[in-house]
Amino acid sequence: MSKVLLDMSMSLDGFVAGPNGEDGGLHDWFFSPAGAEAVDESVRNTGAILIGRRTYDQGDRLGGFAHSPYAVEHFVLTHGAPERPARGEMRFTFVTDGIESAVERAKVAAGERNVAVGGGASIAQQCLKAGLVDEIQVHLVPALLGRGIRLFEHLGDGKIGLETTRVVDAPGVTHLMYRVVEEG
Amino acid sequence: MSKVLLDMSMSLDGFVAGPNGEDGGLHDWFFSPAGAEAVDESVRNTGAILIGRRTYDQGDRLGGFAHSPYAVEHFVLTHGAPERPARGEMRFTFVTDGIESAVERAKVAAGERNVAVGGGASIAQQCLKAGLVDEIQVHLVPALLGRGIRLFEHLGDGKIGLETTRVVDAPGVTHLMYRVVEEG
Fold this sequence. Notes:
Two copies of one chain form a homodimer.
Chain A: E1 4-11, E2 15-17, H1 36-45, E3 46-52, H2 53-62, E4 74-77, E5 92-95, H3 99-110, E6 114-119, H4 121-129, E7 135-141, E8 143-144, E9 149-150, E10 160-170, E11 173-183
Parallel strand pairs in A: 1-6, 1-7, 3-4, 3-6, 4-5
Antiparallel strand pairs in A: 2-9, 7-11, 10-11
C-alpha cells in the first residue's frame, strides 16, 4: 500500500522558501554531487508526486520541471486547471475536488511506491491537518533565512507525535526521517 | 576565550515551549537515562548560563533550578532585579543594562568554558540579532506541537549562515550542532 511522505527542504528556522517563493539556497544540496544518493533513493521510492498550484505555476514558469529527476505523474491540487498545458514532458493531473481526493488519486497512481508531497507549505499543512501524512522527511539546511514561507504553521491545536526513523548527515544538509505515530 | 552557545530544545515545528510557557515534553530527553551523555558533556563545557527574566521567574516559581545539574553562575537579563532572592543554592546575577553587557559579564565568569544561552526564545533572538552567538545547539524533539513559543522568529531580514559541525541521533531527540559562519 502506498504511503504518503511529506518530503521537503527546510531551513533551521523553519522556512521552505523566501518571502516571495524564492529558493533561498534550500535546494542546493539536491543538485550537488553530495546529494545524489538521497535523490536517487527518493526517485526509486516515489510513485507519484502531489504539489500545490503555486508550486506548479512556479515550476512551469521557471522551467523547473525540465530539471526534475522524477518522471512520475504529478497531481496538482487546484481550484481550476490552467488554461494552457504545462511545458515539457512531465505528466500533470489537476485535481479540483479537494485534498482527500488528490491524495487518493495519487496513491492509486503510485502503486506500491510513495506519494511524495513536494510542497509548497500550504498543501503540506492541508495534508497534516487532515491526518493524511504517514511519514515526514525534512531535509534540514543549516541556515537561518530570517523570513520566508514557514512549513509547519497553521496546524491547529492538536499535537502530532513523531518517531525519528532515520538521521543522515550529509554535506550542506541533514536528512531527518520521521513516522507519524499519533495525532490529537 | 569563551564562546556563546545558544543551547535549546525545540520541536520539529520550531517551538521551545507551549503557548503559555509549558514544557510540552521538550525536555523529557534531558531527564532520561538516554540523555545523560549529552547533559554531562554540556555541564562540563558550560562556564556560565544566560537566561531571560521569564525563564528565571518560571524556574524559580516551579523550583526547576533545584533539579539543574549546572552549578555555574546564572546571568539573568532583566529590566529590574526581583524583590526577593531566588530560592535554593543557585547563584544569580541580574543584569539590567542590556544584552551586550549580559553576554560580556557571563563570558568573564565562564573563563575558558562556554556561555550557554538557555532561553527563553526572546533572549535567544536578542543574542542572534546582535551577532553575539558563536554556536547553536538545537536538541530537536520529534513532535509537532501545533502552537507555542517559536525559537527562530523576529530575526529580521538578514540571513545567518551556519555550518553543521555535529549531528547525534539519540532516543527521543536529535542533537544538532552548528557554527555561525556569516551574517548579513
